[in-house]
Design brief:
Rossmann fold; five-stranded parallel beta sheet; four-stranded mixed beta sheet; N-(1-d-carboxylethyl)-l-norvaline Dehydrogenase, domain 2; single chain; alpha/beta
Length: 292
C-alpha cells in the first residue's frame, strides 16, 4: 500500500468518530477528518478499550489536491446542507463509501460522483452519544457491501478491527435492515417508550402490522422476503432487554432531528407511488403529525 494514500471521513458524529478512532491507528495512509463544525479531542469507548482522537476536523481540502477514499458518515437529513462540501471533497478518482443504513443511498450524492465509484453499505455498530466529545460503541463495526467493483479493494484496505463482508443479496439485506429499524423506531416514538414499554402495553401486534405493510412495499419493489420474516423479527424483539432503544427513538428523546424520512417516510413515499395503502403507518404518522 502506498504511503501517499489519502482517506477522508466526512461527518464526525457517532459513526464517523468510530471509524476515525480505528483508522487513525494505521500508519500507511494519511487520515483527514471533515465536519461542518469544528471538533477535536473526541473519545470513543469500545468494550475493551478507549480511543482518543486528537486531530481537529477541517471544513475543506485546504492544500490537498484530492482524496483517494471518502467515507461519508452523515445522516440522511444532513446531505442537502453538506452538498457543496461533499462536491468539493470528491476528486476525479475519489471512491466514496456511504456509511449509513437505509435504501437508495446513492441518490443522496446523485450527480456528484459516478455510480461505479460509490460503495453503499449496511453497518452494524450500535453506538451511543455520551457527550459532544464522547461516544460508546458496544461492538467493533461490521460493514456489509454488495459484490461489485471496489468492494474487494475496500475490504483489503480496512484494519482487522473493522470487519468487512461482501454479500450477494445486498438489496434484500438492506430492505430487511430498513424494515426492522424503521418499524421499531416508529413504534417506539408512537409509544414513547423502549422495548419494555412495548411489551407492557401489548404493542407487539402493532409492530407486526408495520412489518407486514413494509413487506408489501418491498414486494412492489421486486424485493421478495420470506413469509417467516415477521416471526423472525418478533423473536428478535423478544430477545431484546427491556431498556433497548432504537437510534430513532434516542434522537426523539434527545430532541434531535429524527432520521425517519430515509426509513418510514421513504417506505410511505414508495407506497404512494405504487398506490398501496399502509393504514398502520398512516395512523401513526397522523398521530405524530409527521408529513412525508
Amino acid at each position: 500500500m502506498e504511503s501517499s494514500l489519502h482517506i477522508g471521513i466526512l461527518g464526525i458524529g457517532a459513526i464517523g468518530s468510530v471509524f476515525a478512532s480505528l483508522l487513525q491507528e494505521q500508519k500507511s495512509w494519511k487520515l483527514h477528518l471533515f465536519n461542518r463544525s469544528s471538533k477535536k479531542d473526541i473519545h470513543v469507548r469500545f468494550p475493551d478499550q478507549t480511543y482518543h482522537i486528537q486531530q481537529e476536523t477541517k471544513k475543506s481540502l485546504q492544500e490537498m489536491k484530492s482524496l483517494d477514499w471518502l467515507f461519508i458518515c452523515l445522516k440522511e437529513y444532513h446531505y442537502e446542507q453538506a452538498k457543496s462540501l461533499i462536491q468539493s471533497l470528491i476528486g476525479e478518482k475519489t471512491r466514496v463509501v456511504l456509511i449509513r443504513n437505509g435504501l437508495q443511498l446513492s441518490k443522496s450524492i446523485e450527480g456528484l460522483c459516478p455510480q461505479h465509484r460509490i460503495l453503499e453499505t449496511i453497518i452494524d455498530c450500535p453506538t451511543e452519544k455520551i457527550s459532544d466529545q464522547a461516544y460508546a460503541a458496544f461492538q467493533y463495526p461490521i460493514l456489509y457491501l454488495p459484490e461489485q467493483e471496489g468492494s474487494k479493494v475496500f475490504q483489503q484496505l480496512m484494519p482487522p478491527l473493522i470487519s468487512v463482508r461482501t454479500i450477494e443479496d445486498f438489496d434484500i439485506q438492506s430492505w430487511k435492515k430498513c424494515i426492522e429499524s424503521s418499524c421499531l423506531g416508529l413504534l417506539m416514538i408512537y409509544v414513547d417508550g423502549d422495548c419494555g414499554a412495548i411489551r407492557q402495553g401489548n404493542f407487539i401486534p402493532l409492530y407486526k402490522s408495520l412489518i407486514q405493510e413494509a413487506m408489501l412495499i418491498a414486494a412492489a419493489e421486486n424485493i421478495v422476503l420470506e413469509a417467516s420474516f415477521v416471526e423472525q423479527l418478533e423473536e428478535k424483539f423478544h430477545a431484546y432487554p427491556d431498556e433497548k432503544q432504537s437510534s430513532m427513538y434516542r434522537d426523539y428523546r434527545s430532541n434531535s432531528e429524527i432520521e425517519w424520512k430515509a426509513k418510514s417516510g421513504l417506505i410511505q413515499s414508495m407506497a404512494d407511488q405504487h398506490g398501496i395503502a399502509l393504514p398502520t403507518h398512516q395512523m401513526i404518522f397522523n398521530t405524530l403529525n409527521l408529513e412525508v
